[in-house]
Amino acid sequence: MEEKQELKRTLKKRHLDMIAIGGAIGTGLFLASGTSVATAGPGGALVAYACIGAMVYFLMTSLGEMATYLPVSGSFETYATRFVDPALGFAMGWNYWYSWAVTVPSEMVAGAIIMKYWFPNVPGEIWSLLFLVLLVGLNIMGARMYGEAEFWFAGIKVATIIIFIVVGILMIIGILKGGPRGEMFMHWTQGDAPFHGGVMTIFSIAMIAGFSFQGTEIVGIAAGESENPEKNVPRAIKTVFWRILLFYIGAIAIISFIIPYNDPNLLQGGAVDNVAMSPFTLVLQRTGFAAAASVMNAVILTSVLSCGNSALYTSTRMIYALAKEGKAPKFLAKVNRHGVPSNALIFTAVIALLAFGSYLVGENSIYLWLINASGLCGFITWLGIAISHWRFRKAWVAQGHEVKELKYHAMWFPFGPIFAFLLCFIVIVFQDPGSVIHGRWLEALSIYIGVILFFIFFIPYKIKNKTKMIPLTEVDLSRSKVTGMDDFVNDIEKE
């Protein structure tokens, strides 16, 4: 008898915890946070990140409610298909796969740039290809290996931020040198601080903050391979908000107390090839730590590898789920003995390699368009999560269930999904409305191409399959009919 080929639930609680927080920590914190403070001032940056952090918290609780009830690797693609409209699920799934598939080569490029810091004479393509081989190797051996790698990658990031915050506090109170010399709020009262540039700059920083937080939803994908999703998913979700508050708000506060917002170095620190101007590096150097730039370069490298590792894992699982539902070629649903969708992994790696090839031969123009097309995908996904949760909860009640029956339920419903939906919608629309208003069509296309790509998937599928929004009383809330849920449901029934 042929063994049933399905994904395996091998991710432990500690893996899920680090996946939940690791997705939110990347170069957006280590590099772009300084640019945020310089652009909007210390107060403006804190307000922007706090607002987006609150939105992400509500989104994660929405996702957590659905992922605890229905922990599958298709995650929000499956939820949109079952609770809203199959066309929405199809478009979200392919858009999300594409977004992370082209993120892999962007991390390959970033990794090569970082390695030039130590090995300036080694061609960058060699490092990029070595990193791709490493990431494929980690993913081909199963979800457990992915989770273990992410546990250590994310652990390094978390340890760095904690050390940074502790060192920063010691500098501010005067125990370590380099702080504000007894005038704690000196950088908050100079010039037009704390809100440099007014409300519009806060809004622009909110967009940057949103991009920085993208990846937190990966825990919803990983729930499909979690050992005990009914317990581990809620635990991971509940810690996200406080970790975001500590790491992002804490780090930005430290930066703004120690470095003036108008320090020209802060504006230069947003690029991966300028680690010497990272606000983390600048703060640590003020203590007299000579090796700060080298250490931060190593930390940022682990951050890049972590993002690449998660990108390959996430895109592979999403296209696998699409294949299982007949929305992608059937061969992509094949699973190897380690419980890995190997064909989906290889297919995604090949697409990443082709995108990387366009970077090498296309003078970056094709590559930049590919990356721009994925830029808004995270916000579109978040929109879909908010809509799906609204519909799931409404359908749950409409079909005679009570909220208390759910193992985990999101607080503040319906405020949470409504707030998240509106904020995501505003960020998407106001990416650069001026380019549309003033007829700069090529510029507008490069910015909004991610939205266009979504509708390229959505509209033809909807027309061809004549899909409609599913009535609340007809929403399928069963769990035993979903791929990958059979064994889980059986285990729950035995308890």
Question: What's the short story on this structure?
Answer:
The protein is mostly helical and 495 residues long. It has a single domain, classed as Up-down Bundle (Amino acid/polyamine transporter I). 69% of the residues lie in helices and 0% in strands.
Explain this structure.
With 495 residues, the chain is mainly α. It has one domain (13-479): Amino acid/polyamine transporter I, CATH 1.20.1740.10. It has 20 helices and no strands. It has helices spanning 13-22, 27-30, 32-69, 75-83, 86-115, 124-140, 143-172, 199-213, 218-222, 229-258, 264-268, 279-285, 292-324, 342-361, 365-375, 377-398, 415-429, 433-437, 441-465, 486-494. Helix 1 (13-22) runs parallel beside helix 10, helix 5 packs across helix 14 and helix 7 (143-172) packs antiparallel against helix 13 (292-324). It is globular. The two termini are 28 Å apart.
